[in-house]
Specification:
By secondary structure, the chain is mainly α. Helices cover 76% and strands 1% of the residues. It has 14 helices and 2 strands, in the order H-H-E-E-H-H-H-H-H-H-H-H-H-H-H-H. A hairpin with a 7-residue loop joins strand 1 and strand 2. The longest helix is centred in the first third of the chain and has 34 residues.
């Protein structure tokens, strides 16, 4: 009997370890289940996004016109990206468009969302539709319409002449000073609706008790906006900035249709510059180097935005 009790006591720890091992094994297997579900999407993304990007990086180290034999160039194409004024200007313009595509639309969307949330009008569905409408229009069509509006005999100049401001009227897209902001305002017009809807939906998730407590403490509308609304929309602002910054850096349609990068290089962006380098100048390696530099800068900006939008 005593021998039986000793054997049972000695066997107990082994039984517990076996049970823990049996529990851990399914957990380890469970970690790989999400990967199995995402495997088709990851495979598709790897084949059609990652692999072409790696091939583009490889081509950027060669001098190639797209047809004939390629010669090794090393880092010469990357040196050209930062030394040639036209290529350097395209990168600077892409970051300059962030003001029109991100800063102004997010600020406008924030103010509009706060105003409409504080005053629930009956016409709110119509207002939301009107503000969001530019987001669903094809950008090529948007570029064609605004090119006509900005033309010398277009509606904008006709209105200016009608109100006695004929001296201000000009061919906006042909002016070296005003072409860049004229194109940038199209980005503001397109992106404000998206930012407005994102931020308006975020305001609906903020606890009303926070506003009631602030009113009891004597806070005005401006202080409520700055201390409750803006911090409560940190994640939504981060999403809006991420989407609009990518739109600014990867812009092509509107600039290509409206100005083609001109006059001169005053509105040139990397997307249009890459297109011209490949199909007009036959500098495929330089175009790939410019695209690689832009993609790395975009990743760096996205990393910074994600860090700023995280909860502290």
């Amino acid at each position: 009997m005593a021998d039986t009790l000793v054997r049972t006591h000695r066997a107990a720890p082994r039984t517990g370890a076996a049970r823990r091992g049996a529990v851990r094994q399914p957990r380890r297997r469970g970690r790989f289940v999400p990967l199995l579900y995402t495997a088709p999407a990851l495979l598709f993304y790897g084949l059609f996004v990652i692999a072409p990007w790696i091939h583009s990086v490889w081509v950027s180290f060669w001098n190639w016109n797209g047809i004939g034999a390629a010669t090794w160039a090393g880092f010469d194409n990357y040196t050209a990206v930062f030394n040639e004024p036209a290529l350097r200007a395209a990168l600077l313009h892409a970051f300059g468009f962030i003001i029109f595509y991100t800063v102004v639309p997010v600020a406008l969307g924030l103010v509009l969302a706060a105003l409409t949330a504080a005053t629930p009008w009956r016409a709110m569905p119509v207002i939301r539709t009107v503000i969001f409408l530019p987001q669903v229009l094809p950008l090529v069509a948007v570029g064609v319409v605004w090119k006509w509006i900005y033309s010398e005999d277009g509606p904008l100049n006709e209105i200016l002449r009608a109100v006695g401001l004929g001296s201000v009227a000009r061919a906006w897209l042909g002016d070296f000073t005003y072409a860049f902001p004229a194109v940038g305002l199209i980005g503001t017009w397109v992106c404000t609706g998206l930012c407005f809807l994102l931020l308006l939906s975020g305001i609906g998730k903020i606890e009303p008790s926070l506003y009631e407590a602030a009113r009891l403490d004597g806070c005005g509308k401006l202080r409520e906006f700055w201390h409750i609304t803006v911090p409560g929309l940190r994640k939504e602002i981060g999403v809006a900035c991420t989407v609009t910054v990518i739109a600014a850096l990867a812009g092509f349609d509107v600039v290509y249709v409206m100005t083609g990068g001109g006059p001169g290089y005053s509105t040139m962006v990397p997307g249009v510059q890459v297109y011209q380098l490949v199909f007009t100048a036959g500098r495929v390696g330089t175009a790939c180097a410019l695209a690689t530099v832009l993609s790395l800068l975009t990743c760096a900006v996205m990393y910074g935005l994600n860090r700023l939008s995280q909860e502290r």
